[in-house]
């Protein structure tokens, strides 16, 4: 579901469907900056707080329930996981930042890895920053957005768990997020509402990625 004036066209929705209809394979894991793969082709990253639902959304996009590991325990994703989507691009599932049920030093190391990756990856086309719709933007989210603005890395906000709020609550949440993004230079203006549980917004997210790849000539 898109939260902007422009809905994706049927052609773009179909392009997004086809984009994720083919092979999707795990290709690389990087627990530290020195272990990153060579910069080849276009990369798109998913970032967000621990337990925001990144891995579940990766699985929903690709239609594969076990491509990315999911868990109800925050902190399950402990490295940068790279997935090749057909021959078009690489999707990067990042460790959740912030709270996780592991020692503080490890969380701090993940956070450093995330920020270093985001600043130094020239083939990174966009970061989709996942926000739990039940909680909205938190201080730790805005710290990441500050870093993305400073590094001039394009990013777009994706609300997860969109089935958890009533319509009135969601409208209020969305209005607050749009206001917060208004003065952020690297933020893409369209906000996406998704739910991995019932496929809400997943076709629109696929279409968004397809449009981005078209713009990049990938």
Automatic annotation (TrEMBL):
GO terms for cellular component: cytosol
Keyword Cell cycle on entry: yes
UniProt-listed GO biological process terms: division septum assembly
Domain of life: Bacteria
Location of the EngB-type G domain: 40-215
Cofactor: Mg(2+)
Pfam families attached to this UniProt entry: MMR_HSR1
Signal peptide: none
Keywords: Cell cycle, Cell division, GTP-binding, Magnesium, Metal-binding, Nucleotide-binding, Septation
A single MF term (Gene Ontology): metal ion binding
Ligase as UniProt keyword: no
Family in the record: Belongs to the TRAFAC class TrmE-Era-EngA-EngB-Septin-like GTPase superfamily. EngB GTPase family.
HAMAP family reported for this sequence: GTPase_EngB
PANTHER family in the cross-refs: ENGB-TYPE G DOMAIN-CONTAINING PROTEIN (PTHR11649:SF13), MSS1/TRME-RELATED GTP-BINDING PROTEIN (PTHR11649)
Cited function: Necessary for normal cell division and for the maintenance of normal septation.
UniProt-recorded name of the protein: Probable GTP-binding protein EngB
Gene transcribed to yield this protein: engB
């Amino acid at each position: 579901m898109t939260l902007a004036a422009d809905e994706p066209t049927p052609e773009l929705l179909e392009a997004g469907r086809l984009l994720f209809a083919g092979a999707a394979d795990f290709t690389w894991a990087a627990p530290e900056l020195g272990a990153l793969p060579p910069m080849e082709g276009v990369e798109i990253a998913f970032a967000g707080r621990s337990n925001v639902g990144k891995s579940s959304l990766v699985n929903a996009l690709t239609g594969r329930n076990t491509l990315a590991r999911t868990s109800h325990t925050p902190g399950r994703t402990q490295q940068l996981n790279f997935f090749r989507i057909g021959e078009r691009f690489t999707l990067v599932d990042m460790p959740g930042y912030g709270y996780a049920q592991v020692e503080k030093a490890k969380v701090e190391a993940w956070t450093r890895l995330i920020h270093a990756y985001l600043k130094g990856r020239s083939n990174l086309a966009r970061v989709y920053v996942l926000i739990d719709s039940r909680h909205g933007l938190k201080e730790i989210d805005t710290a990441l957005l500050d870093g993305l603005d400073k590094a001039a890395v394009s990013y777009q906000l994706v609300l997860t768990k969109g089935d958890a709020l009533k319509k009135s609550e969601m409208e209020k949440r969305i209005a607050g997020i749009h206001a917060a993004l208004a003065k952020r230079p690297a933020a893409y203006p369209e906000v996406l509402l998704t739910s991995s549980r019932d496929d809400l917004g997943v076709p629109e997210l696929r279409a968004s990625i397809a449009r981005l790849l078209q713009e990049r000539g990938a």
